[in-house]
Amino acid sequence: xxxxxxxxxxxxxxxxxxxxxxxxxxxxxxxxxxxxxxxxxxxxxxxxxxxxxxxxxxxxxxxxxxxxxxxxxxxxxxxxxxxxxxxxxxxxxxxxxxxxxxxxxxxxxxxxxxxxxxxxxxxxxxxxxxxxxxxxxxxxxxxxxxxxxxxxxxxxxxxxxxxxxxxxxxxxxxxxxxxxxxxxxxxxxxxxxxxxxxxxxxxxxxxxxxxxxxxxxxxxxxxxxxxxxxxxxxxxxxxxxxxxxxxxxxxxxxxxxxxxxxxxxxxxx
Length: 269
Ligand code: 2HA
Ligand code: ZN
Description:
The chain has helices spanning about 10-20, 40, 75-80, 85, 115-130, 140-150, 155-165, 170, 190-200, 220-240, 250-260, and strands at about 30-35, 50-55, 65-70, 90-95, 100-105, 135-140, 175-180, 205, 210-215. By secondary structure, it is an alpha+beta fold.
């Protein structure tokens, strides 16, 4: 059996949580990540014997038998690199997703993130749109969060503002950014609402809280959030100044053609 701490998925998870902390997106226990693993790959490192069985509190039959590497509840991203086996866990969903067998990790008796419902339901939603989707990532980037206090929360308006802040935005997230109003976090309700929003975009803002991103790997999902956060930062730098220039819809169409992307229907003139 190979050492799980050398597994590429583990190394990448540790690097990503460390990097997200360094970006200031995951203060204290803020943020959580779930990464869908390949069963055959995991079997190179683990005997797949359940250590404990955890209740999930929801059903997700689509995820029966699926294995995820997930950050732990109450755990700090800044500490993951020093004690991955305490701060992370590998779970296999069983009994229609109502139970999760712990295969590795959470060695202090812990469990997966309190946002597990939003993560698992978002995986279900994204897999239907994109079978290659493997990652759901949540964090609290300051500029996007700040924007939800002063910008209209209409999804089209919010998306258009971000697209106008950096030329590459429309290329990186042509499906735009969906927005949820403030809701109580850690609940099945916010999980269901987030998953619904994930049907039409890979980014979902939680107003006055943070953002969710989904993608095929950790690097890509990190980059997605990074790009939106950069755009929000620029908006906050200019929103109070007289606007002299912008990226026009005509220019957005040129970007669509050049990069072979299609902006969300109805979002451009
Ligand atoms: O606990 O970010 O949304 C970590 C969180 C909850
Ligand atoms: Zn959060």
